[in-house]
Amino acid sequence: MARLTAYSQHNLRGQDFIRELIGHTNLKVSDIVYDIGAGTGAITAALASKVLHVYAIEFEPIAAAKLRKNMRGYENVTVKDGNFLEMKLPNGGYKIFANIPFHLSSLIVHKITEDKNPPSTAYLIVQKQFANKLLPNYDGFTGALGMMIGPTFGVRIRRPLKRSDYTPPPAVDTVLIEIKKREEPFIPLHQMASYRTFIERCFADPEFFAKTPQAKIGLRKGIKPSEMKLDQWVQLFNR
């Protein structure tokens, strides 16, 4: 997986700050946690002191070699070289905590939420603009991906970050988000593939969206897909 400076990655400053971020999660000593795009292991090391086991995933060869070297003294860390997007996710329970490459945020969220065994909770550091579009009832414009995952996952911002929290500082604002699997999905799981296709078509095809029964659920005339909230999408799909 690509990184962020030359490989699209901005590193968090210091172990104390990383531990403080982890304190905004529900990670427990019994958890298995995946660190996606682990770099040289700063987040991995902080996680290793908190949870049962950490799987640190890194694609970039130089960073992966340093990661292996840095993690030699950690018995509860397993380093995996390779592209997370091409990896099979585990069969058992797990969580995710990661400072992911910004340009891969959408692909990573798609993968972890659409897998047959998604994480119970994922904590991801992402661009604020991207995070806002995942929120189910954001006051601004919503995004197709957020509405796709909304019936099965709750999304919220756990903590905003400052640009000075990174080395080097990014040119965008970022936040730590929580993507948590719902105990009771708003749409039956066997209908979710059809629901995601419906959302995708509505956002991509104005003519298709215009033919949906919007008036039957009380939507105002001329509403755009990006102006709709999650509960409205669920109602529209079920008509």
Automatic annotation (TrEMBL):
Keyword presence, Iron: no
Domain Ribosomal RNA adenine methylase transferase N-terminal, chain residue ranges per copy: 17-183
UniProt keyword terms in alphabetical order: Methyltransferase, RNA-binding, S-adenosyl-L-methionine, Transferase
Binding site for S-adenosyl-L-methionine: H10, L12, G37, E58, N99
SMART domains: rADc (SM00650)
PROSITE patterns: SAM_RNA_A_N6_MT
Cross-referenced Gene3D superfamilies: Ribosomal RNA adenine dimethylase-like, domain 2 (1.10.8.100), Vaccinia Virus protein VP39 (3.40.50.150)
Coiled-coil residues: none
Alphabetized Pfam families for the sequence: RrnaAD
Protein name: Methyltransferase domain-containing protein
